[in-house]
Amino acid sequence: MIDIHSHLLYNVDDGSKSLEQSIKYLNEIKKIGMNDVVLTPHVKTKNKDLVKENYEVLKGYANKLGINLYLGNEIMSSSNIINALKNKDILTLNNTKYILVEFKRGESMPKENIYNIFQNLIDNGYKPILAHPELYPCYRDIAFVERLKDMGIIIQIDATSILLDEDFKIYSYAHKLLKNYLVDVVASDAHCTSKRSFIKLAKAYKKVKRKYGKYADIIFCENPKTIIGI
User: Helices 168-179 & 142-151, crossing angle to 10 degrees?
Assistant: First the structure.
């Protein structure tokens, strides 16, 4: 497995709160046999230097365990994304053209506006990944996801959604996406808690493998590998 969405980097967002906590979850990563993890902290204008500093520190500990860490951001959708990307204020995934984009969970903008946001990113040479569409109550619409995929948008769902660790509506919609083969990537979205952890990613893989066979390898291994360019 390769994880393209995690909040393992310490003291920069609502994920890991300390270096010690991050090291604990590095050991969890090692335990499940995963070697490649992308750190995607939420973007905050004042913590760009801290992100890079803490990344270098944590990478040293990860290397000792044989784990490769890569850096990116989880980007809240806004009209300023392209300027921020060009100015290096926010990061693509492992310096590729892939970007991880989220929306506010309670947001309800017209879907046409969302299509336009993504089309603008594509027109500027980026490859957008929509983070956890199953978590947005106003956008739980198969036709909506199908149109995004037709545009070239990559769909990423969270491991916890597959395991019924969220509410049933989230679980049901996540499995609807899987049954329609609309999911491109499953990621941990780990926040270094018992609920949102890397072990949940391993459990989700086993569940999808049991139900959907080789599709599991595509969305947990092959597509993530292509995205981060390794």
Answer: 50
